[in-house]
Amino acid sequence: MPTFLARIDVMLKPLVNDPQGLAVRDGLHELGFGGVQRVRVGKHIDVTIEAADAASAEASVRAMCEKLLANPVIESFSLEVAEAAAATA
Fold it and tell me: Measuring CA to CA, which of 10, 13, 82, 86 is 20 to 30 A from 65?
C-alpha cells in the first residue's frame, strides 16, 4: 500500500482573537520591526499515512482534521497530500 505525506496548516479564523500573534507582533516591534502590522500564529502538522490512493489519504486526513487536529469552531485548516517519496524529494 502506498504511503502519503499530508501537510496540514491550521489557523485561527479571522474574527478569533490571537493573543500569541499579538505577543509576537509586539516583540517584533520591540526588536525594531515597526512596519509589522498584524501577526497570526497557527500550527503546521505533517502526517504520514498509508492509503490505497491519494483521494483516500486526503479523505482520511480531512476526517482527522475535523475530529481532532483543528477545532472547527475557532480554526480553519488547509491540507495538501502527496506520495511520500515525491513529497520528500
Answer: 86
Task: Annotate 31-76 with three-state secondary structure.
Answer: CCCCCCCCCCCCEEEEEEEECCCHHHHHHHHHHHHHHHHCCCCCEE
Report in angstroms the alpha-carbon separations of 81 from 12, 46, 50.
21, 10, 12
> Has residue 63 got a pLDDT over 90?
yes
Provide CB contacts within 8 A for 86, sequence distance 6+.
Answer: none
Class of domain 3-15+42-88: alpha beta
Entry pTM = 0.87
